[in-house]
Amino acid sequence: MEVTPELQHQLKKIDEKYKSINQNTETHLEGLLWSKPITYWDYIQTDALLNLQIQRTTLPDEMVFIMYHQVNELLFKMILWEIEQLAHTEKPTTDYFTDKLGRISRYFDMLTTSFTIMTDGMEPEQYLKFRNTLTPASGFQSAQYRLIEFATTDLINLIDYRFRATIDRNTPYGHAFDHLYWQAAGKDYKTGEKTFLLQEFERKYKKVFLDFMEEYNTINLWRKYKQLPQEDQNNEVLVQAMRHLDKTINITWVMGHFNAAKKYIESVPGNHEATGGSDWKKYMLPKYQKRIFFPELWTKEEIENWGENI
């Protein structure tokens, strides 16, 4: 190999890189001699991914159910990855904000258009059998989805609408947490006691949630939007992109989930509770909670009729 001026320049850059972290360049170069060539399956960890689907029953469609939810969680991670970068950029440019918003929207568009896998991709008879083995687990317990909510909007917009007038930005996070909209779905509607579903969810994630709520209180997606120049905040294309994301997450995605649940849960007479025991209709339907991430971007009439025309 000829040691060209270009190669010498690259070696100098490599040497500077390792010296900057107090490392010996020769040691790292020698390490290249023993490193293995990378393959697709090693890089993507294909074998590990394909061994994460563990059925609890012998029913074939349970595998569809498992894989679909795992795909959702991977997309949730992609969404959080983009939001994290934007949120921790001190003064994002409008172009940077718009680019990240576009990525987040595309991930959620993919989620919403994939619901036919659930609604049309399983036999109701199989679902109604294997779902009993999943009790009391529930999609309610997707921690990443809760983190997306905390990282997207001001906390007040996630509070149960019955308590919003009593909570503001000075309310302790623990008190606000106990009045989040999804708390109602995790409590016995007769006694008000927390269900096992909610108790286990909080046991595993409450501290993570409280820390995350505090971290994103002033750097969530809405707060970053408000940092943009006023002219850009009023840009019609950007406003429509914000509205699209809000509607996609809080109406289209939620209704896709609702319609899938409704098809299977109500396909036979009898008890129509969700696996976690929640009042799933009032928990999921947008018209009840009026969960809106960016209320300032919607008219009073649109808010009053939120989710009614879907």
TrEMBL record:
SUPFAM superfamilies: Indolic compounds 2,3-dioxygenase-like
First and last residue of the signal peptide: none
InterPro entries (alphabetical): Trp/Indoleamine_2_3_dOase-like, Trp_2_3_dOase
Source taxon at top rank: Bacteria
Pfam families linked to this entry: Trp_dioxygenase
Stored PANTHER family: TRYPTOPHAN 2,3-DIOXYGENASE
Name of the protein in question: Tryptophan 2,3-dioxygenase
